[in-house]
TrEMBL record:
<dbReference type="GO" id="GO:0003700">
    <property type="term" value="F:DNA-binding transcription factor activity"/>
</dbReference>
<dbReference type="InterPro" id="IPR036390">
    <property type="entry name" value="WH_DNA-bd_sf"/>
</dbReference>
<feature type="compositionally biased region" description="Low complexity">
    <location>
        <begin position="9"/>
        <end position="39"/>
    </location>
</feature>
<feature type="domain" description="HTH marR-type">
    <location>
        <begin position="49"/>
        <end position="185"/>
    </location>
</feature>
<feature type="region of interest" description="Disordered">
    <location>
        <begin position="1"/>
        <end position="43"/>
    </location>
</feature>
<dbReference type="Pfam" id="PF12802">
    <property type="entry name" value="MarR_2"/>
</dbReference>
<dbReference type="InterPro" id="IPR036388">
    <property type="entry name" value="WH-like_DNA-bd_sf"/>
</dbReference>
<dbReference type="InterPro" id="IPR039422">
    <property type="entry name" value="MarR/SlyA-like"/>
</dbReference>
<dbReference type="GO" id="GO:0006950">
    <property type="term" value="P:response to stress"/>
</dbReference>
<protein>
    <submittedName>
        <fullName>MarR family transcriptional regulator</fullName>
    </submittedName>
</protein>
<dbReference type="InterPro" id="IPR000835">
    <property type="entry name" value="HTH_MarR-typ"/>
</dbReference>
Length: 198
């Protein structure tokens, strides 16, 4: 595998592209807001491992900016928004998360998770209820206001995705799903292997 940092020719060729992706100054001194998605060619001449890494990194950065904008717009902590997303995803899959499940999903301590859920419950987005199968456990239920907020937050992005995904046929989508699943699993394994403080 080639060194991702030692390829001088690629780094030189990508200097202009990277600068545009992160925003910069025009010749007239105006600040640009061009995103990474607007600066990359749709057909890479050579898609090696580090090309894929670079695209995933850009997607992560764009997603981070998107979530921060949503958080600011709706006066939500980033962690609160992540918690709502996790609870919504579980509900879409027919699962109910407990507080412990949510803590594990978000890699939060029990006390930090309690603070997140307290804020969401005070805001009227979720409710803690006793699990009907195990009364010792509290599970998280979404209120209608959370579903409405979820629609406001994620439907516009979903529709934008659907538009650009139309060019991919069923077999290509299967390949994309396998790629994303493998990438997610590799990211989770690598994250789990990192040393933890304390």
């Amino acid at each position: 595998m080639e060194d991702p940092h030692g390829r001088a020719a690629e780094n030189t060729a990508n200097t202009e592209e990277t600068g545009a992706a992160e925003g910069g100054m025009t010749d007239t001194g105006e600040t640009t807001s061009t995103t990474a998605a607007e600066t990359v060619a749709p057909d890479e001449p050579d898609v090696d491992d580090w090309t894929l890494v670079r695209y995933i990194r850009r997607l992560t950065m764009e997603a981070d900016r998107f979530l921060q904008a949503l958080s600011d717009l709706h006066d939500l902590h980033r962690t609160d928004l992540a918690a709502l997303s996790a609870i919504m995803d579980a509900a879409d899959e027919g699962r109910l998360l407990s507080q412990g499940d949510l803590a594990a999903t978000l890699n939060l301590s029990a006390s930090a998770t309690t603070s997140v859920l307290d804020r969401l419950q005070t805001a009227g987005y979720i409710e803690r209820r006793r699990d009907t199968a195990d009364r010792r456990k509290l599970v998280l239920h979404l209120h209608e206001s959370a579903l409405t907020l979820g629609d406001q937050l994620f439907i516009p992005l979903g529709e934008a995705y659907f538009t650009v995904w139309r060019e991919f046929d069923r077999e290509q989508r299967r390949t994309i799903v396998r790629f994303l699943a493998a990438t997610l699993a590799a990211t989770a394994r690598t994250s789990a292997a990192l040393p933890r403080k304390g």
